[in-house]
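just leaving the lab so this will be short. below you get a single protein, a line of residues and a line of whole numbers that encode the local backbone shape. id like you to explain what the token line says about the fold, in plain words if possible. thanks a lot i owe you, the record is right below:

…
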Amino acid sequence: MTEKKTYHEEFKVSGEELLKKVKEVIAEGNVRKITVKGKDGKVIVEMPLTVGVVGAVLAAPLAAIGAIAALVTECTIAVEREK
């Protein structure tokens, strides 16, 4: 049985770039989980993603991230991907 390996990436973005970057990362594929952290490193929101999550299922989490973007000036997006 082949075990899937995961790797992590982090992106520092401003609040106004947050939603755009999250959508971009999701569109790239192979994403297992997205975590948004504040400037202080504390987790603001975690969004686990599974293969086949599309459209309307993502609407609520993306709306929440949009609301968070209005409140933060700088944050980090941590992305867990499968190889």
Notes: Residues 56-71 form the longest helix (16 residues). The CA atoms of residues 18 and 69 lie 6 Å apart. The chain has a mean pLDDT of 82.
